[in-house]
């Protein structure tokens, strides 16, 4: 493997370790400190900038490896169709090895690029989760300390119960009056509508 594919493999391994570190369930205090450091540190920002530049090179390697894989596959198909030189075992092995290396390079660079997108999104989701948990903690602290909020909720619950009771009594009274009306008219009102 050439030096740039070896470096790409090391980058992929570092991404896998980083992803594992991002999804490990740490306590909230530790997670908050780590993510705050990672998102606000100027040193980490410079390292991230350098890594973004390296992903541009990995993207170039990906398209080069993809082009090489298509070219080798086309050459192998052409050689099989023409049957020129494919009778030799060494030639077949050479084509198979070249095809394998081209596919390996495509997968290596493709997975590295894909995992970079996954890492970026996972980091953003974790930051959003931390901010949401902080907001939730602030709201939770604010609601018990304000007794008026709890008092308002209880008052509204009582008002709701009294309105529901009034509604139920009015519904019963309406049904009784409707039954009396139907008995008095003999149900003629319903027949006139038909």
Automatic annotation (TrEMBL):
The chain crosses the membrane at residues 7-30, 42-63, 106-124. This is Endoplasmic reticulum transmembrane protein. Residues 1-138 form the BAP29/BAP31 transmembrane domain. GO terms for biological process: endoplasmic reticulum to Golgi vesicle-mediated transport; intracellular protein transport; protein localization to endoplasmic reticulum exit site. It is a multi-pass membrane protein. Keywords: Coiled coil, Endoplasmic reticulum, ER-Golgi transport, Membrane, Protein transport, Transmembrane, Transmembrane helix, Transport. GO terms for cellular component: endoplasmic reticulum membrane. Residues 153-180 form a coiled coil. It is found in: Endoplasmic reticulum membrane; Membrane. InterPro entries: BAP29/BAP31, BAP29/BAP31_N. Its main location: endoplasmic reticulum. Pfam families: Bap31. May play a role in anterograde transport of membrane proteins from the endoplasmic reticulum to the Golgi. Belongs to the BCAP29/BCAP31 family. It comes from the Eukaryota.
């Amino acid at each position: 493997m050439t030096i740039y594919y070896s470096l790409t493999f090391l980058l992929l391994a570092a991404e896998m370790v980083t992803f594992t570190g991002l999804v490990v369930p740490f306590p909230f205090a530790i997670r908050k400190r780590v993510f705050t450091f990672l998102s606000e540190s100027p040193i980490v920002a410079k390292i991230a900038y350098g890594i973004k530049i390296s992903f541009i090179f990995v993207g170039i390697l990906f398209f080069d490896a993809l082009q090489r894989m298509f070219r080798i596959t086309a050459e192998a198909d052409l050689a099989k169709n023409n049957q020129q030189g494919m009778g030799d075992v060494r030639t077949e092995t050479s084509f198979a090895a070249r095809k394998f290396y081209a596919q390996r390079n495509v997968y290596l660079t493709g997975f590295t690029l894909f995992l970079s997108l996954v890492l970026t999104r996972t980091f953003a989701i974790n930051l959003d989760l931390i901010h949401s948990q902080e907001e939730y903690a602030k709201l939770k602290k604010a609601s018990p300390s304000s007794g008026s909020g709890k008092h308002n909720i209880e008052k509204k619950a009582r008002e709701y119960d009294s309105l529901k009771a009034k509604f139920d009594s009015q519904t019963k009274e309406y049904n009784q009056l409707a039954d009396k009306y139907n008995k008095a008219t003999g149900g003629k009102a319903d027949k006139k509508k038909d």
